[in-house]
Amino acid sequence: MTKKPSIAVLAVLAPLPIIFYLNANFNVYPITLIIRFLPAFCAPLVAPISMLLPKTHPIDFGAYLGGQRLFGDKKTIEGTFAAIIVATGLGVALSEPLVGFVFAVGAMLGDLLNSFIKRRLKIPPGNYFPIMDELNFLFFPVIFALSFFSITSLDVLILGVLTMFLHYLYDRVALFTGFKKREHIDIIIDK
Questions:
Q1: Mean pLDDT confidence for 68-90
Q2: Which of 77, 87, 30, 83 is closest to 56 using CA atoms?
Q3: How many domains does the chain fold into?
Q4: Average of pLDDT values for 135-157?
Q5: Can you give the pTM of this predicted structure?
Q6: Distance CA 109, CA 104 (A)
Q7: What pLDDT is stored for residue 118 in this prediction?
Q8: What average pLDDT score do residues 78-101 get?
């Protein structure tokens, strides 16, 4: 598997100047909503880059529950901390460091919850879990947002639709860069 990390990082960072430009010049909804949630969107995109490290440590330390791993080898301490640090840094850049940190932690908790549920359902790591794989990292940040600002049903709908679109887009990037071997639809058809 060929990995092209520079292309993957570029694909993650490329939309940010456009989003910041739109916010600075137009400051309109839903751009402002999207910008507030950038740390939550950013965290799960950073975590897989830890696969480039020569050695990583599973966050569940290899523990089992009911004959299944808690989370699996792909959920690493290094990836989780890198995601939280980078997303918190994005929160600092947005002048909302606490929101950035809380959303980053929330996004990673949602990702771990998704992996935990997949292991209980005996879905192997890397295999597709419809809807949950797209929206898992948004669950806790949306709940945590209520502590910082008001959030409406329309906000949640916009974030959900945007998340589905971004997941599809970054799935294409992951396939192209070699971070992913197969499309989700291939995995569903093989079952």
A1: 92
A2: 77
A3: 1
A4: 91
A5: 0.81
A6: 9
A7: 92
A8: 92
